[in-house]
Amino acid sequence: MAKPFARKFYSSKAWQDCRNEYAKRQHYLCENCMRKGIYKPGEIVHHMIELDPVNIENPEITLSFDNLVLLCRDCHAEEHKAHSKGRRYVFGDNGEVITKK
């Protein structure tokens, strides 16, 4: 589920068109699995630079194919798990900064 600060973006036509075109160009296959020689459907277009309340208005981050990767659900979950390791903070549901303990 999208965080409140990102809901408007994720429901926008610009994102839906971008997401659909990106998935099409990747032949609807998970890019991480493909690197391992596995053919698995990609289901989630993931932003490599995580969206936050500051960069959500920057189309070079939000809509650039250079910042996207198509992942299956398993790879997407792993990406989020790996991405949050070692962080000193995370963003809450409303975009507020939460310091990790």
Characterise the protein shown here.
- This protein is of the alpha+beta class and 101 residues long.
- It has one domain.
- It has 5 helices and 4 strands; from the N terminus they run H-H-H-E-H-E-H-E-E.
- Strand 3 and strand 4 form a beta hairpin.
- The longest helix is centred in the N-terminal third of the chain and has 13 residues.
- The mean pLDDT is 88.
Number of strands: 4
**What percentage of residues falls in helices of 4 or more residues?**
25-40%
SS strand fraction: 5-15%
What overall geometry do the principal axes of the alpha carbons give? Answer: globular
Distance between the termini: 24 Å
* Arrangement of strands in the largest sheet: 1-2
Structural class: alpha+beta
Number of domains: 1
- Listing every helix as H and every strand as E from the N terminus to the C terminus, the arrangement reads HHHEHEHEE
Q: What would you report as the Rg, rounded to the nearest angstrom?
A: 14 Å
On the 0 to 100 scale, the average pLDDT is 88
The major beta sheet can be summarized as: 2 strands, antiparallel
Helix segment tally: 5
Q: Ranges with pLDDT <50 over ≥5 residues?
A: none
